[in-house]
Fold this sequence. Notes:
By secondary structure, the protein is an alpha+beta fold. It has 5 helices and 10 strands; from the N terminus they run E-E-E-H-E-E-E-E-E-H-E-E-H-H-H. The strands form 2 sheets. A 7-stranded antiparallel beta sheet has the order 8-7-6-5-4-9-10, sandwiched between helices. Strands 1-2-3 form a 3-stranded antiparallel beta sheet. Strand 1 (6-10) and strand 2 (13-16) form a beta hairpin. Helix 2 packs across helix 5. 31% of the residues are buried.
Amino acid sequence: SGIIPIKNKTNNNYLSVSNKKYSTQDIKNHLKDIIDGRYSVSNRDIAFIEQRIKNSTLLDSITYKGLPDVRIICYNSIPCMAMLRVPTKESDGRANLAENALGIGLNLSNGEPNYYYYNGKISKKDPINEEQLKKVPNFIRILQVAVKCARISKLKLVGCDIALNEKNEPVLLELNSRPGLKIQLANKDSLRNRFEKIEGLRPKSINESIEIAMSIFGESYKKINIVNPNVIGLNEKIKV
Length: 240
């Protein structure tokens, strides 16, 4: 709640992704509401503005205006369950299941759909989009980002929300220490059962965490080579 995705600005007017116009004063009033705690469980809050991420063109066909994201639940730094949250007309461009966004459970082996959860119902096919999702692009990289975030946060249980930008690169949106449980409905499976299977495991690397997740929780799993991302770290060995 309280999020306004802005796609354009003309003079003193702002246009949201759902084509609703906001004046500068509207934005100021909204910021005051946030600070006064209107959207918070406490009496006060902090308002902040962040860069708008343009959606992956590979997900545009199933998305209504807003930005979909992948929710990864990690336990012991191991991905346990995944879901693609897709904005709908009813959710007004927001990827929030509480506001009737579409939840698509994902196979941890390959990012292909498991089940669809929408408006309180579970189905095997997409209930609102004619074009069916084949698989989430760059899924291995998304898992790598989620596991790295889980390790950095040192939270035993964490929900990682990751979007894909226009270049199909994963972008971290936020981490949740108390993620919602509707991801279970989109996968027709219990998180508790999955947690119990990996309770004592302590993977030594990010890719080992992903291999464990794929082999235990994935379907149609085959041993694959997980390529390390081309990311420059703080300390790198180089050859000139």
